[in-house]
Design a protein that fits this description.
By secondary structure, the protein is α+β, with helices and mostly antiparallel strands. The protein has 12 helices and 10 strands. It folds into 3 domains: 114 residues, Butyryl-Coa Dehydrogenase, subunit A, domain 1 (Orthogonal Bundle); 106 residues, Butyryl-CoA Dehydrogenase, subunit A, domain 2 (Beta Barrel), CATH 2.40.110; 151 residues, Butyryl-CoA Dehydrogenase, subunit A, domain 3 (Up-down Bundle). The structure holds flavin-adenine dinucleotide (FAD). Flavin-adenine dinucleotide (FAD) binds next to strand 1, strand 3 and helix 12.
């Protein structure tokens, strides 16, 4: 496993790092307290080509690879995990299925505005009774006139409150995986954006319920072949998980940065606490684990860039990197002592934000399932 960053990769990382340091980090605590990120910050990332960097130049994007996307997400997550969700969704969950399954007309209609941030998107797969078990989804699309009427409800939809384009998965056939189709649509009558769901962390990312009541979409809103929606949803998540692994690396890096800075300045027993091995070693452990997590993440991205299978590699990266993020944030809280527990210091936010990386785009158990299926094949089903 080798991971080499090109000069172009280092340049895009430098751009994202500078944007994060100047435009996000100084205001991240304030935005999290207000549970809000200014929309113009998200759009500015679009104008810099950071919001959906993998959209090809022919559709108005920066034409960068999955490795670049990981580098961008890690840098933005290092400043604020919630803000990085907008990139993970816009690029990994909205642009990606459009690029994979969209018609030229669908790509021309949506991708240039997704790349620039003029249009924000969301990915509506999960339902109140269908999370890990995606094939149990019940939202239904019924043929009607020149298109489809969509009825049902979705839950936990990131960016749903501000989205102008929706990737929606709905049942067009019978029970099970083969009865599901994907749609790409703008807002239309019959769509209701529900309440903002209160969360443990990730306060700068909006998460809402969506209700569809006979929302009519034209026939050309079908994304990919009828009945192959779940295949598209899962292929999208194969790539999206690499992005979440990168987000976890950013959170872990922020936790380590904070731990080192605080331990170097905080005095106890006549000098900085950084001189105690009891303080150093947990930070050293997570620093080693973060290097490994980053390598797994960039390895999975490199496989994706090479057009190789990357489902299991992405699952390994997400499984490991998310556990490192949780551990590193725990170490940061412990290193800061009482201040670590205070909502006035960043360790507490990192601790709350890290946990989500073990849950969304497939829980850690589901990542183990993906890895086991890769190891055992049909014997694991
Ligand atoms: C903040 C946030 C943002 C999100 N954003 C989006 C979004 O933008 N779009 C979207 O579609 N979804 C989104 N989700 C949904 C997310 O992907 C799901 O919450 C996640 O996949 C888990 O589904 P669930 O919550 O229904 O849990 P369940 O599927 O009900 O799982 C409950 C528990 O059972 C375990 N479990 C389930 N099945 C198995 C199994 N076979 N083997 C072992 N253990 C199992 C799980 O690991 C978990 O611990 C978001 C969720 C959150 C919290």
């Amino acid at each position: 496993m080798t991971v080499t960053l090109s000069e172009a990769h280092r340049d895009v990382r430098a751009l994202a790092r500078e944007f994060a340091a100047n435009e996000i980090a100084p205001r991240a605590a304030e935005w999290n307290a207000a549970k809000h990120v200014p929309i113009d910050v998200i759009r500015r990332m679009g104008s810099l080509g950071l919001l959906a960097p993998t959209i090809p130049e022919q559709y108005g994007g920066a034409g960068l690879d999955a490795t670049s996307l990981c580098l961008v997400v890690e840098e933005i997550a290092r400043a604020d995990a919630g803000t990085s969700v907008s990139i993970a969704v816009q690029s990994g969950l909205v642009a990606s299925p459009l690029l994979r399954a969209g018609t030229e007309a669908q790509k021309d209609e949506w991708l240039p505005r997704i790349a620039s941030g003029e249009v924000l998107g969301c990915y509506a797969l999960t339902e109140p009774d269908a999370g890990s078990d995606t094939a149990a989804l019940r939202t239904r699309a019924t043929a009607s006139g020149d298109g489809w009427d969509i009825t049902g409800s979705k839950q936990w939809i990131s960016n749903g409150s501000m989205a102008d384009v929706f990737i929606v998965f709905a049942r067009t056939g019978g029970e099970g995986a083969r009865g599901v189709s994907a749609f790409v649509t703008g807002r239309a009558p019959g769509l209701e954006v529900g309440r903002e769901i209160p969360k443990l962390g990730l306060h700068t990312s909006s998460t809402v319920e969506l209700a569809f009541d006979s929302m009519h979409v034209p026939g050309h809103a079908l994304l990919g072949p009828e009945g192959e929606g779940l295949k598209l949803a899962l292929a999208t998540l194969d790539g999206g998980r690499i992005t979440i692994a990168a987000q976890a690396c950013g959170i872990a890096q922020a936790a380590i940065d904070l731990s080192v800075a605080y331990a170097s300045e905080r005095d106890a027993f006549g000098g900085p606490i950084a001189r105690f091995q009891g303080v150093q070693f947990p930070i050293a452990d997570v620093a080693a684990q973060l290097d490994a997590a980053r390598l797994l993440t960039l390895h999975a991205a490199a496989l994706r860039d090479a057009g190789e299978p990357h489902g299991a590699a992405g699952a390994k990266a997400k499984l490991f990197a998310s556990s490192v993020a949780v551990r590193a944030a725990d170490v940061a809280v412990q290193t800061l002592g009482g201040y670590g527990y205070s909502a006035e210091y960043d360790a507490e936010r990192l601790y709350r934000d890290a946990k989500i990386t073990e849950i969304y785009e497939g829980t850690s158990q589901i990542q183990r399932l993906v890895i086991a299926r890769d190891l055992f094949g049909d014997a694991a089903r």
